[in-house]
Hints:
Elements (H helix, E strand, L loop, with lengths): L2 H30 L5 H37 L4 H22 L1
Amino acid sequence: MSDYLKKGFLLGLGAAISGKEKLEKKLTDLVDKNEISQEQAKQVMNNFIEKGEMKKDEWSEKQQEQAQKRAADLGLATKEDIAELEARIAALEIKLNNQEQ
């Protein structure tokens, strides 16, 4: 991983951890002041986690799409292309074997 990407990744990870810690502290303060219940605090935390999971899935999907686009731009064969060629080769081998007999 390039140094630039590594630093960006670590920056994002640090921000996420810091944000989580701040949210947990704020929720604990609200529970201690009886402004929200422990159950409400858990629900808020779960909502943030759920939103994070959705965003992670969205990013993963975009990354996959970009990788496929780069592969297509480079003219690389996909798994489907290879499977299609293997099927054609197998069919030709069968045809060739039948002609030799």
